[in-house]
Amino acid sequence: MEIMNYISKNLPILIVVIGTIAALIANAYKSSKDASQSDNIERLGNETQKLSALNRDISIKIQQITTANKQTSDENLALNQKSKELIIEVQKLTIETQKLIAKVDERTAYEAAENLQSGELHLDFSQAFTDKISFRIGGNTFSNPLKNFKMGAKIFQFADKDPISIGFDHSKILISMKVFDLKGNLIAEIENNFWRPNRNFTGKFNYDDHGFEVMDNEGNIAVSIDITGTNQLDIQGVFPIKEQKIIIFAGQQMNILAFKNPDIEAQVQARHHISYDDYLNQILHDLRIRQIFEYTGKNWLHKRRPID
Q1: Taking a C-beta distance cutoff of 8 angstroms, is the pair 92, 98 a contact?
Q2: Is residue 70 part of a domain?
Q3: Do 237 and 249 meet the contact criterion of CB atoms below 8 Å apart?
Q4: 19, 180, 222, 233 - which has most CB atoms within 10 Å?
């Protein structure tokens, strides 16, 4: 009751005191809030400045990239133009190359077809022969006066067979012979340099101004005639000596082989204990005639192989 009387008596004073306290609290809160807000504003200003600086850096980089892209674009444009010019030049060269290849292929096809057709060999030997001519056959060398060959002369003769004859006409060599494969089959004839392949011939021949050779259907050299020195001809090949019998001259070697002869086949089988076909294959392998001309690739006609 006393408290109530005290409050009732002093109420105006209490109201003033309470109001003053409330004002002080409000001012204190406001001051605190203003300080915090000021700090936030300051921090925000700093961040804004940093962001502005970063934006400036980004703008500079973008400008640099734009400039570089423009330079690259200009360079690419120039490069593309140069590339187009080069491509046009390459296309022109390609067209010319294709035309040249077509001509070479046409010539090669013609030369290959020439092997299967009759025609002159054109053996125009450039080397001049003097008073005599030497022949090297099967490791043996013999000479004859050149005058003996003016109208054609036989190099050697077995019974009634004329394996090869050679003549001269105004220093031009003329060859006549029959060409046999390593099994004794007639594959071509040559008469005064005129080439006539047999129907069964699928091989090739090649020649130049110093010699010629014939490759049979199996890829073996059947005959080879070559100028190897002054007034000297090297002769290798397969030559008939009588029915079903041939003689092979290969380098320094020679051998006589018979075909379809039952008596000889029986003797070989009894002596060597192998079939006659195997015996022939072994002999033919050992008597392989050295190849002097090329038969593959472009422009192989008239082209010699490198000397081993």
Answers
A1: no
A2: no
A3: yes
A4: 222
The one-digit pLDDT tens for each residue of the chain (308 residues) are 555 555 555 555 555 555 555 555 555 545 554 555 555 556 656 666 776 676 676 677 677 777 777 777 677 777 677 767 767 766 776 676 666 555 555 454 444 445 556 677 766 555 556 677 788 888 888 887 777 766 666 666 555 566 787 777 766 777 888 888 887 788 888 888 888 888 878 888 888 888 889 999 888 899 998 888 777 888 898 887 776 777 888 888 888 777 777 888 888 888 888 888 888 788 777 778 889 999 888 788 889 998 76
Give the C-alpha separation, 238 to 254, whole Å. 10
Residue 45 lies in a domain: no
**What are the CA-CA distances from residue 74 to residues 32, 64, 78, 85, 260 (Å)?**
63, 15, 6, 17, 85
Element (H, E) at 20: helix 2-114
Q: Is residue 227 helix, strand or coil?
A: strand
C-alpha distances (whole Å) from 94 to each of 99, 107, 211, 290, 299 are 9, 20, 38, 40, 20
Which domain, by its residues, includes 268?
Answer: 115-286
Q: Is 123 left (phi over 0), alpha (psi -120 to 50) or beta?
A: beta
Residue 13 makes CB contacts below 8 A (sequence gap 6+) with none
**pTM for this structure?**
0.57
In a domain, 202, yes or no: yes
Does residue 109 lie within any of the structural domains?
Answer: no
Q: Which tokens hold the place of 19?
A: 């109001």
Residues 59, 52: Cα–Cα separation, whole Å: 10
